[in-house]
Amino acid sequence: MGARMNNKGFTLVETVTVLVIIGIFISFFYTLWFLNWQACEGFLARADFGQEMDHTIDQIADDGRFAKTITVGNTDTTKETTITDPSGNVSKYTMSNNGQLTITRGLNAPETVTEKLDYANSNFAQDTNGAGLIVTIAMTDQIFGHPVALSSEITIYPRN
Hints:
Layout: H1 12-65, E1 69-74, E2 78-84, E3 90-96, E4 101-105, E5 111-114, E6 123-126, E7 133-143, E8 146-156
Antiparallel strand pairs: 1-2, 2-3, 3-4, 4-5, 6-7, 7-8
């Protein structure tokens, strides 16, 4: 009888098979993880954009609710509302056709509220009885190469 071979270890075919299976699992889980990561980033970017919209509306609404007087003035290149509180402090919101919404408080320099304004679809207007302010804000942004548009309208009535 011939000599018996010592069969300890793996053959080349077994090793290559295991490596191929591991490679398939790694590629599957990497793809799954990558797609979920992109979806998560997209969701967070849209959530941030929505929060910016909410903050913009809330800021105007807070000033408008404590207003003594509200005036609206629109031109070809800007849309403006001036809000004066009972103490005489003035806040002026200006929508520019370059996509910016700014606020000027008193004699201070204008502060940018947002640079994502959709000027054509945004507006300040007095309501029909002249007591309230109708604010229509539309904003657009590119999130991962896809256009996203948000819009909101609120009618603000001064409490004073």
